[in-house]
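Severity: low
Component: inverse-folding endpoint
Summary: output formatting inconsistent between runs
Steps to reproduce: submit the following structure tokens with default settings.
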């Protein structure tokens, strides 16, 4: 009887929450299939483009599974005009950006900003883009499930891709050579790798013939998983969202595993709190000369509203800005504010009534500890430029971990 009552209560709560969420939803007046903008994007953001359209147009959708992976489809797509369906492209990051510059599409959602050569292309065309972050993703590092290694540091990942670590036995694994796969230049994940992992310092060029069984450059996201299954000593990177929501269990399952970085696994909690070291922004981009009365610009603006963020969350992404305030409720139900962030050097920690038994450690981007001691209200980080991770501990137990950017 108690279990039945509990089940009814849970169902009632879910129903009420659903009704309130429906009432809170604010769409865009006048949007329809005829005036819906032309959209494009990267492989990993393709489902988001479809889910946004489904919610704005009140269409049903579902995730589908196939041998190649999972994707979103409109369940009533058979009744849709062909012209409407043609408005959705998935040209991958580089081509989507070029299409936007060339005015072949109105709005794109991609996993990065323009690269250097794309900016040059835009400048030559006399075009500029507005690139606005709307969601958070992460770059995961994956290996064959047979590999005994489970965690690597930021510095170890960097040294693998710089060619300084070449055997798994150097980092706790078997005596086997490491095969570090990369993606093709200008792909979304490759640019993410260069920027947020390698700090734009570059990597050796391992490009070889595509007919070579030991090829290191992979030309699609699905190829990453295929090659790691074939090469037990390989390692590569993938957008977290693509891995979690779009890959088929045929490829992942018990064949591929994700590495923890600095002992931290990527998930929605570690991504939204900027705890995982390799968090990346997802951008909506439009041309700067786009008519602000156009439906494309209205969709661009809507993606930054509460309803837009709710749909982004519904898709599986973490909405940008929703968890980026620097305020964390972690310690004895107190709100701890760490600000400013980014900072020019000095951060202030407010909201703590009792600093006794509280210590802190600060690690730089390669996992080296640069400061530690008893927690205080003001910490000077001016000598540690770039990315830092602040951990606050009570009796040696971590109670807060926060990413700090020193400009």
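Observed output (run 2 of 3):
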């Amino acid at each position: 009887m108690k279990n039945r009552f509990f089940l009814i209560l849970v169902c009632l709560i879910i129903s009420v929450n659903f009704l309130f969420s429906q009432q809170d939803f604010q769409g865009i007046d006048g949007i329809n299939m005829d005036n819906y903008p032309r959209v494009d994007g990267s492989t990993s953001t393709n489902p988001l483009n479809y889910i946004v359209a489904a919610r704005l147009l009140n269409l049903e959708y579902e995730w589908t599974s196939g041998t190649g992976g999972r994707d979103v489809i409109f369940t009533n797509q058979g009744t849709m005009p062909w012209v409407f369906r043609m408005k959705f492209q998935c040209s991958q990051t580089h081509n989507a950006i070029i299409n936007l510059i060339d005015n072949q599409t109105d709005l794109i959602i991609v996993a990065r900003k323009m690269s250097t050569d794309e900016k040059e292309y835009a400048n030559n065309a006399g075009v500029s883009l507005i690139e606005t972050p709307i969601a958070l993703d992460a770059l995961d590092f994956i290996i064959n499930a047979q590999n005994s290694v489970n965690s690597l540091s930021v510095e170890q990942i960097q040294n693998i891709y710089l060619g300084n670590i070449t055997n798994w036995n150097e980092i706790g694994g078997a005596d086997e050579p490491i095969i570090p796969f990369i993606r093709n230049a200008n792909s979304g994940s490759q640019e993410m790798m260069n920027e947020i992992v390698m700090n734009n310092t570059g990597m050796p060029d391992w490009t070889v013939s595509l007919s070579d069984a030991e090829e290191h450059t992979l030309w699609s996201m699905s190829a990453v998983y295929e090659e790691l299954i074939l090469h037990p000593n390989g390692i590569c990177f993938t957008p977290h969202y693509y891995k979690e929501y779009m890959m088929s269990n045929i490829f992942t399952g018990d064949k591929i595993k994700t590495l923890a970085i600095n002992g931290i696994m990527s998930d929605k909690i570690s991504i939204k709190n900027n705890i995982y070291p390799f968090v990346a922004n997802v951008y909506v981009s439009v041309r700067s000369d786009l008519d602000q009365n156009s439906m494309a610009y209205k969709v661009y603006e809507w993606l930054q509203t509460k309803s837009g963020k709710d749909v982004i969350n519904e898709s599986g992404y973490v909405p940008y800005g929703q968890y980026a305030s620097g305020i964390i409720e972690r310690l004895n139900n107190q709100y701890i504010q760490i600000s400013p962030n980014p900072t020019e050097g000095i951060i202030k920690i407010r909201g703590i009534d009792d600093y006794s038994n509280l210590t802190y450690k600060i690690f730089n981007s390669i996992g080296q500890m640069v400061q530690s001691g008893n927690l205080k209200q003001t910490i000077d980080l001016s000598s540690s430029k770039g990315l830092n991770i602040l951990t606050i501990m009570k009796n040696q137990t971590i109670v807060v971990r926060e990413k700090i950017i020193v400009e």
